[in-house]
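Feature request, filed as a ticket because there's no other form

It would be nice if the structure record came with a short human-readable summary line next to the C-alpha coordinates. Right now we just get the raw output. Example of a typical job, pasted below so the devs can see what we mean:
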Amino acid sequence: MATRLSSGRQRGGDEDPDALDVLLDGDIDRVMAGLDRIVEAAPSYRRLISRWENQGWSSEAFDFSRDAEEWNDEAIWTAEQKRFMTWSLSEFFLGEERVTTELLPFAIAAPTDDQRIFLASQIADEARHCVFFDRFYREVIGSDAETIAANLAAQRKHVNEDWKLLFDGILHDCAETLRKDPSDIDALVRGVTVYMIVIEGTLALTGARFILRSLKEMDRLPGFQDGFTHVNRDESRHVGFGIRFLADAIKDDERHKRTIEETLAETLPVGTLAFSPEWVEDRYDFETPFGYHSSEIFDYAARSLQKKLAAMGIEPSADAAA
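Raw output as currently delivered:
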Protein backbone atom coordinates (compact mmCIF):
# COMPACT_ATOMS: atom_id res chain seq x y z
CA MET A 1 0.00 0.00 0.00
CA ALA A 2 2.84 2.41 0.77
CA THR A 3 4.27 1.73 -2.68
CA ARG A 4 0.99 2.61 -4.34
CA LEU A 5 0.76 5.90 -2.44
CA SER A 6 4.31 6.80 -3.33
CA SER A 7 3.58 6.07 -6.97
CA GLY A 8 0.51 8.32 -6.86
CA ARG A 9 2.52 11.22 -5.49
CA GLN A 10 5.11 10.75 -8.23
CA ARG A 11 2.40 11.01 -10.85
CA GLY A 12 1.11 14.19 -9.26
CA GLY A 13 4.58 15.74 -9.28
CA ASP A 14 5.91 14.61 -12.65
CA GLU A 15 3.59 12.61 -14.89
CA ASP A 16 0.35 14.56 -14.43
CA PRO A 17 1.25 18.22 -14.02
CA ASP A 18 -2.11 19.34 -15.43
CA ALA A 19 -4.33 17.39 -13.02
CA LEU A 20 -5.39 20.60 -11.27
CA ASP A 21 -6.41 22.32 -14.52
CA VAL A 22 -9.95 21.02 -14.04
CA LEU A 23 -10.26 23.55 -11.22
CA LEU A 24 -10.31 26.30 -13.84
CA ASP A 25 -13.39 24.78 -15.51
CA GLY A 26 -16.71 26.57 -15.18
CA ASP A 27 -18.87 23.44 -15.35
CA ILE A 28 -19.51 21.85 -11.96
CA ASP A 29 -20.02 18.37 -13.42
CA ARG A 30 -16.56 18.46 -15.00
CA VAL A 31 -15.07 19.88 -11.80
CA MET A 32 -16.57 17.04 -9.75
CA ALA A 33 -15.48 14.41 -12.27
CA GLY A 34 -12.02 15.93 -12.30
CA LEU A 35 -11.77 15.72 -8.52
CA ASP A 36 -11.11 12.00 -8.92
CA ARG A 37 -8.12 12.85 -11.07
CA ILE A 38 -6.83 15.26 -8.40
CA VAL A 39 -7.29 12.60 -5.73
CA GLU A 40 -5.34 10.07 -7.77
CA ALA A 41 -2.59 12.53 -8.71
CA ALA A 42 -1.98 13.60 -5.08
CA PRO A 43 -0.49 16.96 -6.13
CA SER A 44 2.26 18.52 -4.05
CA TYR A 45 1.52 21.33 -1.59
CA ARG A 46 3.46 23.72 -3.79
CA ARG A 47 1.33 22.82 -6.79
CA LEU A 48 -1.82 23.35 -4.73
CA ILE A 49 -0.53 26.75 -3.64
CA SER A 50 0.23 27.62 -7.26
CA ARG A 51 -3.28 26.69 -8.29
CA TRP A 52 -4.66 28.98 -5.56
CA GLU A 53 -2.66 31.86 -7.03
CA ASN A 54 -4.05 31.18 -10.51
CA GLN A 55 -7.62 30.49 -9.42
CA GLY A 56 -8.48 33.74 -7.68
CA TRP A 57 -11.90 35.35 -8.07
CA SER A 58 -14.00 38.13 -6.56
CA SER A 59 -17.31 37.70 -4.76
CA GLU A 60 -18.35 41.03 -6.32
CA ALA A 61 -18.02 39.72 -9.88
CA PHE A 62 -21.40 37.97 -10.20
CA ASP A 63 -24.59 39.54 -11.53
CA PHE A 64 -27.54 38.64 -9.28
CA SER A 65 -30.16 40.77 -11.07
CA ARG A 66 -31.84 37.85 -12.85
CA ASP A 67 -31.51 35.72 -9.72
CA ALA A 68 -33.46 38.29 -7.69
CA GLU A 69 -36.22 38.48 -10.30
CA GLU A 70 -36.56 34.71 -10.40
CA TRP A 71 -36.50 34.28 -6.61
CA ASN A 72 -39.41 36.67 -6.21
CA ASP A 73 -41.48 35.15 -9.02
CA GLU A 74 -44.07 32.81 -7.49
CA ALA A 75 -44.66 31.25 -10.90
CA ILE A 76 -41.07 29.93 -11.01
CA TRP A 77 -40.57 28.43 -7.55
CA THR A 78 -42.86 26.26 -5.47
CA ALA A 79 -43.06 27.01 -1.75
CA GLU A 80 -41.39 23.67 -0.99
CA GLN A 81 -38.51 24.37 -3.38
CA LYS A 82 -37.87 27.74 -1.75
CA ARG A 83 -38.03 26.18 1.70
CA PHE A 84 -35.51 23.50 0.71
CA MET A 85 -33.17 26.03 -0.92
CA THR A 86 -33.31 28.44 2.03
CA TRP A 87 -32.50 25.65 4.49
CA SER A 88 -29.73 24.16 2.36
CA LEU A 89 -28.02 27.43 1.44
CA SER A 90 -28.22 28.67 5.04
CA GLU A 91 -26.27 25.61 6.14
CA PHE A 92 -23.66 26.43 3.51
CA PHE A 93 -23.56 30.12 4.48
CA LEU A 94 -23.12 29.46 8.20
CA GLY A 95 -20.76 26.59 7.46
CA GLU A 96 -18.45 28.91 5.53
CA GLU A 97 -18.24 31.24 8.53
CA ARG A 98 -17.55 28.37 10.92
CA VAL A 99 -14.71 26.90 8.87
CA THR A 100 -13.21 30.37 8.33
CA THR A 101 -13.14 30.94 12.08
CA GLU A 102 -11.92 27.50 13.09
CA LEU A 103 -9.12 27.02 10.54
CA LEU A 104 -6.48 29.29 12.08
CA PRO A 105 -5.35 26.74 14.74
CA PHE A 106 -4.94 24.18 11.94
CA ALA A 107 -2.58 26.53 10.08
CA ILE A 108 -0.55 27.20 13.22
CA ALA A 109 -0.30 23.48 13.99
CA ALA A 110 0.73 22.36 10.47
CA PRO A 111 4.26 20.87 10.64
CA THR A 112 5.74 22.37 7.44
CA ASP A 113 5.91 25.80 5.85
CA ASP A 114 4.26 24.56 2.65
CA GLN A 115 1.31 23.22 4.65
CA ARG A 116 0.99 26.41 6.68
CA ILE A 117 1.09 28.58 3.57
CA PHE A 118 -1.60 26.52 1.87
CA LEU A 119 -3.85 26.65 4.93
CA ALA A 120 -3.37 30.41 5.13
CA SER A 121 -4.59 30.63 1.54
CA GLN A 122 -7.56 28.47 2.46
CA ILE A 123 -8.59 30.84 5.24
CA ALA A 124 -8.80 33.59 2.61
CA ASP A 125 -10.91 31.28 0.42
CA GLU A 126 -13.38 30.49 3.18
CA ALA A 127 -13.76 34.16 4.08
CA ARG A 128 -14.51 34.99 0.44
CA HIS A 129 -17.12 32.23 0.32
CA CYS A 130 -18.82 33.70 3.38
CA VAL A 131 -18.87 37.16 1.75
CA PHE A 132 -20.32 35.61 -1.44
CA PHE A 133 -23.23 34.08 0.49
CA ASP A 134 -23.76 37.28 2.47
CA ARG A 135 -24.13 39.18 -0.79
CA PHE A 136 -26.50 36.55 -2.24
CA TYR A 137 -28.73 36.68 0.83
CA ARG A 138 -28.90 40.46 0.67
CA GLU A 139 -29.46 40.90 -3.06
CA VAL A 140 -31.56 37.82 -3.82
CA ILE A 141 -33.15 36.35 -0.69
CA GLY A 142 -33.88 39.83 0.66
CA SER A 143 -31.96 40.01 3.93
CA ASP A 144 -31.77 43.54 5.37
CA ALA A 145 -29.12 42.75 8.00
CA GLU A 146 -26.59 45.56 8.40
CA THR A 147 -23.53 43.35 8.95
CA ILE A 148 -22.32 39.89 7.98
CA ALA A 149 -22.61 38.86 11.63
CA ALA A 150 -26.24 40.01 11.75
CA ASN A 151 -26.99 38.22 8.49
CA LEU A 152 -25.48 34.99 9.81
CA ALA A 153 -27.47 35.30 13.03
CA ALA A 154 -30.68 35.81 11.06
CA GLN A 155 -30.13 32.63 9.01
CA ARG A 156 -29.13 30.48 11.97
CA LYS A 157 -32.75 29.52 12.59
CA HIS A 158 -32.64 27.44 9.41
CA VAL A 159 -29.83 25.05 10.42
CA ASN A 160 -30.69 21.82 12.22
CA GLU A 161 -29.38 20.41 15.51
CA ASP A 162 -27.11 17.92 13.78
CA TRP A 163 -25.45 20.76 11.86
CA LYS A 164 -24.82 22.48 15.19
CA LEU A 165 -23.31 19.30 16.65
CA LEU A 166 -21.00 18.92 13.64
CA PHE A 167 -19.81 22.53 13.38
CA ASP A 168 -20.27 24.01 16.85
CA GLY A 169 -19.35 20.75 18.57
CA ILE A 170 -17.02 18.38 16.74
CA LEU A 171 -15.22 20.88 14.47
CA HIS A 172 -14.93 23.48 17.24
CA ASP A 173 -13.48 20.89 19.63
CA CYS A 174 -10.84 19.96 17.04
CA ALA A 175 -9.83 23.60 16.67
CA GLU A 176 -9.76 24.17 20.43
CA THR A 177 -7.54 21.14 21.00
CA LEU A 178 -5.07 22.45 18.42
CA ARG A 179 -5.21 25.97 19.84
CA LYS A 180 -4.21 24.64 23.26
CA ASP A 181 -1.47 22.36 21.89
CA PRO A 182 -0.36 23.02 18.28
CA SER A 183 2.16 20.17 18.56
CA ASP A 184 -0.59 17.53 18.89
CA ILE A 185 -0.26 15.76 15.52
CA ASP A 186 -3.01 13.28 16.40
CA ALA A 187 -5.40 16.18 16.92
CA LEU A 188 -4.36 17.67 13.58
CA VAL A 189 -5.00 14.37 11.79
CA ARG A 190 -8.41 14.20 13.44
CA GLY A 191 -9.17 17.82 12.55
CA VAL A 192 -8.18 17.46 8.89
CA THR A 193 -10.34 14.35 8.65
CA VAL A 194 -13.35 16.20 10.07
CA TYR A 195 -12.74 19.36 8.05
CA MET A 196 -11.42 18.43 4.62
CA ILE A 197 -12.65 14.84 4.29
CA VAL A 198 -16.07 14.83 5.99
CA ILE A 199 -17.33 18.43 5.90
CA GLU A 200 -15.82 19.59 2.61
CA GLY A 201 -15.07 16.39 0.71
CA THR A 202 -18.07 14.24 1.57
CA LEU A 203 -20.89 16.59 2.62
CA ALA A 204 -20.39 20.01 1.04
CA LEU A 205 -19.18 18.92 -2.39
CA THR A 206 -21.93 16.32 -2.64
CA GLY A 207 -24.66 18.75 -1.61
CA ALA A 208 -23.32 21.40 -3.96
CA ARG A 209 -23.24 19.00 -6.88
CA PHE A 210 -26.95 18.24 -6.57
CA ILE A 211 -27.92 21.88 -6.02
CA LEU A 212 -25.93 23.07 -9.03
CA ARG A 213 -27.10 20.19 -11.21
CA SER A 214 -30.73 21.06 -10.44
CA LEU A 215 -30.25 24.79 -11.06
CA LYS A 216 -28.47 24.07 -14.34
CA GLU A 217 -31.22 21.73 -15.56
CA MET A 218 -33.91 24.29 -14.67
CA ASP A 219 -31.84 27.24 -15.96
CA ARG A 220 -32.32 29.20 -12.74
CA LEU A 221 -30.19 31.57 -10.63
CA PRO A 222 -27.38 32.04 -13.19
CA GLY A 223 -25.38 34.41 -10.99
CA PHE A 224 -25.50 32.03 -8.07
CA GLN A 225 -24.61 29.08 -10.30
CA ASP A 226 -21.49 30.88 -11.48
CA GLY A 227 -20.41 31.97 -8.00
CA PHE A 228 -21.18 28.66 -6.29
CA THR A 229 -19.18 26.81 -8.94
CA HIS A 230 -16.21 29.03 -8.05
CA VAL A 231 -16.76 28.18 -4.38
CA ASN A 232 -16.67 24.47 -5.11
CA ARG A 233 -13.59 24.67 -7.27
CA ASP A 234 -11.90 26.09 -4.18
CA GLU A 235 -13.34 23.33 -2.01
CA SER A 236 -12.02 20.69 -4.38
CA ARG A 237 -8.52 22.10 -3.98
CA HIS A 238 -8.91 22.06 -0.19
CA VAL A 239 -9.93 18.41 -0.31
CA GLY A 240 -6.85 17.69 -2.41
CA PHE A 241 -4.75 19.16 0.40
CA GLY A 242 -6.52 17.06 3.03
CA ILE A 243 -5.96 13.83 1.14
CA ARG A 244 -2.30 14.63 0.56
CA PHE A 245 -1.77 15.60 4.20
CA LEU A 246 -3.41 12.44 5.55
CA ALA A 247 -1.59 10.19 3.07
CA ASP A 248 1.68 11.74 4.21
CA ALA A 249 0.70 11.32 7.87
CA ILE A 250 -0.04 7.64 7.33
CA LYS A 251 3.24 7.17 5.51
CA ASP A 252 5.05 8.70 8.51
CA ASP A 253 3.11 6.62 11.06
CA GLU A 254 0.60 3.85 10.28
CA ARG A 255 -1.24 4.44 13.56
CA HIS A 256 -2.87 7.51 12.01
CA LYS A 257 -5.06 5.15 10.00
CA ARG A 258 -6.85 4.26 13.21
CA THR A 259 -7.36 7.92 14.11
CA ILE A 260 -8.89 8.59 10.71
CA GLU A 261 -11.15 5.53 10.90
CA GLU A 262 -12.35 6.41 14.41
CA THR A 263 -13.01 10.00 13.40
CA LEU A 264 -15.05 8.89 10.39
CA ALA A 265 -17.07 6.46 12.51
CA GLU A 266 -17.91 9.28 14.93
CA THR A 267 -18.52 12.06 12.43
CA LEU A 268 -20.25 10.54 9.40
CA PRO A 269 -23.53 9.63 11.16
CA VAL A 270 -23.81 13.22 12.42
CA GLY A 271 -22.83 14.64 9.05
CA THR A 272 -25.45 12.59 7.22
CA LEU A 273 -28.21 14.13 9.33
CA ALA A 274 -26.66 17.60 9.27
CA PHE A 275 -27.44 17.76 5.56
CA SER A 276 -30.86 16.13 5.85
CA PRO A 277 -33.96 18.32 6.43
CA GLU A 278 -35.66 17.90 9.79
CA TRP A 279 -39.19 18.25 8.44
CA VAL A 280 -39.22 15.07 6.30
CA GLU A 281 -40.80 11.93 7.76
CA ASP A 282 -37.69 9.77 7.24
CA ARG A 283 -34.42 11.71 7.12
CA TYR A 284 -32.65 8.77 5.46
CA ASP A 285 -35.31 8.19 2.82
CA PHE A 286 -36.94 11.23 1.25
CA GLU A 287 -37.66 12.87 -2.10
CA THR A 288 -36.35 16.38 -2.67
CA PRO A 289 -38.57 19.01 -4.34
CA PHE A 290 -36.07 19.06 -7.21
CA GLY A 291 -36.75 15.52 -8.39
CA TYR A 292 -33.90 13.53 -6.89
CA HIS A 293 -34.03 11.08 -4.00
CA SER A 294 -31.92 11.06 -0.85
CA SER A 295 -30.48 7.68 -1.87
CA GLU A 296 -28.79 9.37 -4.84
CA ILE A 297 -27.13 11.87 -2.51
CA PHE A 298 -25.97 9.25 -0.02
CA ASP A 299 -24.71 6.88 -2.73
CA TYR A 300 -22.72 9.62 -4.43
CA ALA A 301 -21.21 10.73 -1.11
CA ALA A 302 -20.25 7.16 -0.16
CA ARG A 303 -18.53 6.50 -3.50
CA SER A 304 -16.69 9.79 -3.27
CA LEU A 305 -15.47 9.01 0.24
CA GLN A 306 -14.27 5.55 -0.74
CA LYS A 307 -12.08 7.03 -3.49
CA LYS A 308 -10.53 9.47 -1.04
CA LEU A 309 -9.82 6.75 1.50
CA ALA A 310 -8.21 4.58 -1.15
CA ALA A 311 -5.95 7.47 -2.16
CA MET A 312 -4.82 7.74 1.48
CA GLY A 313 -4.12 4.02 1.71
CA ILE A 314 -7.17 3.08 3.79
CA GLU A 315 -9.62 0.34 2.91
CA PRO A 316 -13.12 1.69 3.64
CA SER A 317 -14.67 0.15 6.75
CA ALA A 318 -18.36 -0.62 7.06
CA ASP A 319 -18.84 2.57 9.08
CA ALA A 320 -17.01 4.78 6.60
CA ALA A 321 -18.82 3.36 3.58
CA ALA A 322 -22.30 3.62 5.14
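Something like this underneath would help us a lot:
The chain has one domain: 2-321.
DSSP finds 14 helices and no strands in the chain.
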